[in-house]
Amino acid sequence: MSVQEINVPAPADFHVHLRQGKMSELVSPHVAEGGVALAYVMPNLVPPITSAQQASDYLASLSALAPQTKFVGTLYLSPALTPDEIARAAEAGVRGVKSYPRGVTTNSEGGIEDYETYYPIFEAMQKHNMVLNLHGEVPSNADAGICVLNAEEKFLTHLFKIHRQFPDLKIVLEHATTRKAVEAVKQCGDTVGCTITPHHLELIVDDWAGKPLNFCKPVAKYPDDRQALRDVICEGHPRFFLGSDSAPHPLANKYPSAVTHGAPGTKASSSGDDDLEPTGVVSCGCAAGVYTSSILVPLCATLLEGFGALDQLANYVSLNGRKFYGYDNADDMKNGSITLRRASKGATGSAATVPAVYVHPEYVEVADSDASKVQVVPFWAGKRLGWEIVRS
Ligand code: DOR
Ligand code: ZN
């Protein structure tokens, strides 16, 4: 007889985007709704979070929106950052620094162009036991043969080099998508960990090509890569853990030309002279990001059960990441344990059916065609999850 209930000790999401303004109001409470007690929050805001003070203010704003969640902050690696600021940030409880190579994803225009420039920062981080979070892709460069499908593999030399130079620095390779990345992390020492998103446990190239809601960075890769991600979860390898990379974007930015400007090539909203580029179309095309916060732990349970790893759920969504980051003591874990139960089959519209869309309450009455409307379509919208959270 298959298991019907599972207790999961205080799930933690070690990579989540909670944004600012109305979007933050909409998505921050979803962290707890998805079963997560601790959220490690990314700094790619506009402007990015580059100081201890900014990080503290941001975390306070998130806590005001979702008091039941423990939020942990990060800084954005950029030339603005100094070793002194690292010391202040460590003192203020900021746990890590996120590195984005310039131009590879959302709000990465201020990202970095080489790593050696930042060695004094890494030195200070090592001293203060801060974690370096690496977006592990190099920018596309057709002349050099680099595109989104091999950008992660080409990055791995940087991982090895930084690890060699700073063996005591805790490093997390974020949202790994390839067999090569899994092997690289395994080859490194105990100071190197790796987040794996639930959507990368599910998607392959065919699932995002032409399907903006599944498009994220790094893009999902080949079936064999997905198998490597699944295998390392099945194995329960202690340095691989949940970082959802849940990244909400307004629907209008996922389908920019269709939603905000009518069919491409029409003059409907164009004030420029290029008929093929109506004004305001996001120049990079569809925004990168998959949204999973609101359904996170039930989604993970459903996916892990699908490839025979349900017994690894607690390791994946809680214990491994907490141990790596040092949030595994009894005090950190005393609140936030959850129970999941198998969702009953049958009528649609149960708690286990993923909502079609989330809309900020102030925008419910606004026409769907209004691009400013804060509405987010979650991963697996309208599909049924195999597990649901027991709410008391
Ligand atoms: O798909 C992504 N979305 N990947 C990232 O690295 C950033 C994120 C976002 O902030 O939207
Ligand atoms: Zn991210």
Question: Can you offer a commentary on this structure?
Answer:
The chain has 392 residues and is of the alpha/beta class. It has a single domain (10-334), classed as Metal-dependent hydrolases (TIM Barrel, Alpha-Beta Barrel), CATH 3.20.20.140. It has 14 helices and 14 strands. The chain has helices spanning 21-27, 30-33, 52-65, 83-91, 119-127, 151-165, 179-187, 205-208, 223-235, 251-254, 256-261, 296-306, 313-325, 330-333; strands at 5-8, 12-16, 38-41, 70-72, 74-76, 96-99, 131-135, 170-174, 192-196, 240-242, 338-342, 358-359, 375-376, 387-389. Strands 5-6-7-8-9-10 form a 6-stranded parallel beta sheet. Strand 8, helix 7 and strand 9 (192-196) form a beta-alpha-beta unit. Helix 4 packs parallel to helix 5. The two termini are 26 Å apart. Bound molecules: (4S)-2,6-dioxohexahydropyrimidine-4-carboxylic acid and zinc ion. (4S)-2,6-dioxohexahydropyrimidine-4-carboxylic acid is lined by residues 17, 44, 105-106, 135, 216-217, 245, 247, 288-289.
Please outline what is shown here.
GO terms for molecular function: dihydroorotase activity; metal ion binding. It comes from Pseudozyma antarctica. The chain is an alpha/beta fold and 392 residues long.
What kind of sheet is the major sheet?
6 strands, parallel
Overall pLDDT, averaged? 91
The CATH superfamily is Metal-dependent hydrolases
The neighbouring-strand order within the major sheet is 5-6-7-8-9-10
Distance between the termini: 26 Å
Strand elements, count: 14
Question: What would CATH call the architecture?
Answer: Alpha-Beta Barrel
